[in-house]
Amino acid sequence: MDAAFIERGIALVGAIAVGVTATVQLKNDWTARGLDADLTKVLLGLMALGCVIALLAAVNLLGVRS
Amino acid sequence: MAAAAARHLSGTEAVAARYRDVDPVYGETRDIRLLGFVFFLLSDCILFSSFIFAYVYLRISAPAWPPFLNGHQLPWFDTSFAAMNSIVLFGSGVTMHFALENWKHLNKAKFNGWLIATILLGIGFLGGQAHEWSVVGISWTATTMGAAFFTLTGMHGFHVFVGVCYLTVLGLQANGGTYTGSKYFGLTAGTLYWHFVDVIWVFLFFLFYIW
Amino acid sequence: MHTTSTTHDTHDAHDHIHPPPEGFVRKYVFSLDHKVIGFQYFFTGLLIMFIAGSFAELVRLQLTDPNGAIMSHTAYNEMFSMHGTAMVWLVLIPLVTGALGNFVMPLQIGARDVAFPWLNMASFWILPVAALILFSSMLFGGPHAGWTEYPPISLADGTANALWALAIFTIGISSTMTGLNFMVTIMKMRAPGMTWTRMPLFIWATFATALMNMVATVALSVAVGALFLEQVFNVPFFDPSRGGAVVLYQHMFWFYSHPAVYIFIIPAFGVVSEVLPTFARKPIFGYKMIAFSSMAISILAFTVWMHHMFPSGIAPWLQLPFMILTYAIGIPTGIKIFSWMATIWGGRIHFTSAMLYALGFLITFTFGGLTGVFLASVPVDLHMHGTTFVVGHFHYVVAGGAVMGFLAAVPYWYPKATGRMLNEGLAQLGFWLFFLGLNGTFLPMHWLGLEGMPRRTATYAGFAKAFPDAVFWNQFETAFSFLMVAAIGLLAFNVIWSLRHGKLAGINPWGARTLEWTISSPPPYYNYKKIPQVYGRPYDFDQPLPYRNTDNELDEFPEFGRVLMPTPQPVGA
Hints:
The complex is a heterotrimer of chains A (66), B (211) and C (573).
Chain A: H1 3-28, H2 35-58
Helix pairs in contact in A: 1-2
Chain B: H1 11-19, E1 20-22, E2 29-31, H2 32-61, E3 68-69, E4 72-73, H3 79-104, H4 108-135, H5 144-175, H6 185-210
Antiparallel strand pairs in B: 1-2, 3-4
Helix pairs in contact in B: 2-5, 2-6, 3-4, 3-6, 4-5, 5-6
Chain C: H1 24-29, H2 34-62, H3 73-108, H4 117-136, H5 159-188, H6 201-233, H7 246-280, H8 287-300, H9 319-344, H10 353-376, H11 378-384, H12 388-418, H13 424-451, H14 461-466, H15 469-501, E1 533-534, E2 547-548
Helix pairs in contact in C: 2-3, 2-4, 2-15, 3-4, 3-5, 3-6, 3-7, 3-12, 4-5, 5-6, 6-7, 6-8, 7-8, 7-9, 7-10, 7-12, 8-9, 9-10, 10-12, 10-13, 12-13, 13-15
């Protein structure tokens, strides 16, 4: 139960929460029109992707150093 | 006949009127300043891309990574802490999205709540970065790993700091009556900037902590 | 495409006429008016051109003697480095984008100003600041490694290198903001009915240039920013002993600097596309080809940068693709040249000074473009790199292309800007001086370079022993270079003298057909009282003017040389 484990745990829980929320918001806003809406969709999608990466890092599937 | 000086508009309305135009693609009123702001974000993207190119070039052409310094190989960065800090920043992106949504639905109290959450999370991220800088154990000038790391995360951190200031100003302006339910370009711009800074971090997190 | 209703009472970007600025400072110093800002860029650019040109003259004087006539190696290095740096960033780009683009573009699209006038003003005022920073570097010895300032050698310049980098970074902000401003203006503020394929070709050129300006300049800022960090804070981007790579700087620098040369030349292409049809009284040949080739060049420009680096030690497999891409980018340019020639073929040519410069452009730019095609070939470049052949090539395209195009624009749009004609006799004399001076100075550099004369070296005694006529040719070049100085001096005199003594110009002295020739000369601060509607291209000389709702009543078929005075307008907004 060292610091890294706690950090990973927070990252895991947070990644799921934030990632799911971002994806849900993306789905809700999918039909919005306009340049700002399009850009928001792209950026929200990339943020969700970031959450996926952070999640995989938290469970040691990515970013494992030899 | 140009209706130029006929009606007198005040404050934000006058500014918005000057910049409003009819978008040929979407057929609705669009703000010229939005296009200008998106182009600004594009140029900011090139800024990060160029430094990222330098980092990738240096890393690929290095004989070993992490590089050796005085006979010892430098340690990798701490992925677990960064993962946690990243979630803080991504979370702030989602809270900012909620803030803007609530403004559009004319719910000022909730807007304020989510905006404050965003700012606090942003400050939290900066705090996390400061901690990371203090414990990372490499210097800016000894190796290309430090050069790339501190330059890129420093530039990103500067952008986050500017963003926090910007959001604070927006919050003060919004509560001071500068924006209305239909004219709130500053808030849109601030949200887009914040998301942009967020997404840059996705790339930096991957490049320094995963790859 | 905008709707064509003019009787709407919603306010939009087209309708707004702000009250006139008051006071000397608001009108002429911190002006938001794109026309005033254009003038500011023009005079500042011209002033710096004189300074940078004097540095070049000192370089030329030095080379009259193979053992070096007037200065040390160090001083010589500083002279050519400052000449190049100042000319590229403080003269060429400000003049073609800041002066020309600012003044002409909003007028040609029927707009009252650019999209972000305050940003425009800020972009201008960055120029004198950047100039001060650059020239202050000379107090610390100045840059010595050329306008490219490659590390590691540039790092020996110390504070001067840091100031050089800071100056370039600063002016880069101005270019980026201007590019952004112009792009949004052209995309969003064209007159109703002016679709993309009804835009004047100068606007296509400005758009392509603005795109490159906005995207490429930031890459330069990063390159010089990294150099600055290494110089001042010892951050190891380019130091091999700590893992850095010298060639990395070259990649980052040339990724911008190749598009930069297209930033110089495409506005000149736009000017030529306007001047040739007007003075040949013929529609432009191949409108769409010219328009799309400008866009093609602006995209391809980002794909050829390594042709500046063939001998630098890049991986050999990279040389072939960049060679092919460099050949490829000559194609859209060639299309333009053929289109221009077809434009004037069979036309009724009026040899005004603007036309002379445009025709001279066709000759000197084509020649420079051809030597560029030679240099695109890797085997040739490996021998020619670092010789005066390259110097001759790029001066033909820059001085014989960009500057020549800019010099065509001056007599062409001066009447619109000031309401007076430039003195035609002086302008024509200036053309011949410039044309002869240019060719005399830069043509011999080609054969000297083929024989192996190196560039950027203060003495050439060894080379002169092997090729004794090198001394004569260098002296020849120096002599002819003064003709160019005289030409620019004459232009400056002409511009100032004609402000008071030039013939009154009227609305449309050239019988041209683009929108700016439908309003008075000089235009009122708000340009267009009524935003005109456009329903055709401006180049069809046998068709009536394709505009409705213009401020002045116009001739259907404007004739060359007839002075039209503006229709009296009712007083009051």
